[in-house]
Amino acid sequence: MCIRDSFRAGYRGDGDWTTAKRFFVTQDDDLQRVGSELVADLGEVNMSDGATLVDFVTWAVETFPADKHVLILSDHRRGWPGGWSDPGPGGRGDPDIPLSSALGDELYLMELDDALGEIRDRTGLAKFELIGMDACLMGHLEVMAALAPHARYAVASQETEPALGWAYTGFLNTLNQYPGMDGADLGRFIVESYIRDDQRIVDDQARAEFLRQGSPMGGLAGLFGDVTSRQLTEQMERSVTLSALDLSALPALLDSVNALSYALQDASQKTVARARTYAQSFTSVFGKNIPPSYIDLGSFVQLLKREINDADVEGAADQVLASLDRAVIADKHGPAKSVATCVSIYFPNSQLYKS
Q1: C-alpha dihedral sign at 194, 197, 202, 207
Q2: Distance (Å, rounded) from C-alpha 126 to C-alpha 94?
Q3: What is the CA angle 158-169-123, rounded to 5?
Q4: Which of 297, 324, 325, 336 is most enclosed, with most CB atoms within 10 A?
Q5: Which residue stretches of the chain have pLDDT < 50?
């Protein structure tokens, strides 16, 4: 099942509808319109409201019982604060959440946590088999910590995602062939199929249309003729990241990060700052003039180990890296993110908070 909410002028294909609709998803070969059965047109709903998520997932779980349940959330996101804004209803957000005064009405991480807990309470669901974030910048340790009580596995990207999103045809075909797979295997197939198996790349007509609409290689298509699926895949994969994690490993990873943070209190802060500066970073959502505050956990820890001559820090760093290795099931990162290790942390410098 899926629920899709389109805002005015957000997508002009398939009738340019602007309401929220529930579909019973079935396979078809038309990439321009939704061919699945329309179950309900809900009118205008606020997709930034946790209650909307609770209502849909509770209905889906109760109406279509299954041995394992997977929840995939797709839209624009901004990392640990949250995301899934909805310009249609024009909501103002919860005034008790300080972020809403700056960012507006979004589904913030603590609201997502509350919604997932309420879903489990209402449905009796022990845990989701997998929660997927088909959205930008969600591969944060903070995000995984919020998901861990509610799911066994998670898939998310540390970096922004290109307009393609995930390759649903690729991994859903595999799931259809092997419906008994667990969340770990599904997570691997989601990661492996990302970009490479996307129909807008592998299908010649869809690829030509995608290039006309302004992909990174659209200009090259006009200069040098047809762009092959391999060429476009290589270009699109340059800066992407996507990872699947075993959330049962999160408590140990969190404990190891806490232990490292404690050990760093007595370490050279200049060395810590230097490691933060040179660690693999990701797109900043706080403006181009602010140094990146989303950095790769493993890259940062590896730099610490190399630069700090401190046995306590080195031991704590080794524990972080070992815990991180146990948590990661599958990983894809392009050459522009060559040292990404699947999990980000929020580590800003003081410039972000200067008025």
Answers
A1: negative
A2: 28
A3: 75
A4: 297
A5: 9, 222-224, 355
Which amino acid appears at position 105 of this protein?
D
Angle at 109 between CA 117 and CA 159, to 5 degrees: 125
Both tokens of 166, joined, read 């995930």
Burial 226-256 (b: 16+ CB within 10 A, else e): ebebebbeebbbebbbbbbbbbebbebbbeb
d(CA 147, CA 116): 8
| Neighbouring C-beta atoms of residue 213, cutoff 10 Å | 10
Helix or strand holding residue 204 (H, E): helix 204-212
pLDDT of residue 355: 45
- Backbone CA torsion sign across 33, 39, 45, 49: negative
**Cα separation, 159 vs 136, whole angstroms:** 6
Q: How many CA atoms lie within 13 A of 56 on its CB side?
A: 25
Task: Find out whether 122 and 245 touch, Cβ atoms under 8 Å.
Answer: no
Q: What is the pTM of this model?
A: 0.91
Task: Note the pLDDT tens digit of each residue in 188-225.
Answer: 999 999 999 999 899 998 888 888 876 555 555 543 45
Alpha carbon distance 162, 185 (integer Å): 24
Give me the count of residues in the chain. 355
| 305-310: Cβ within 8 A, 24+ apart | 307/271, 307/274, 307/275, 308/267, 308/268, 308/271, 308/272, 310/263, 310/266, 310/267
Nearest residue to 113 via CA among 158, 70, 80:
80
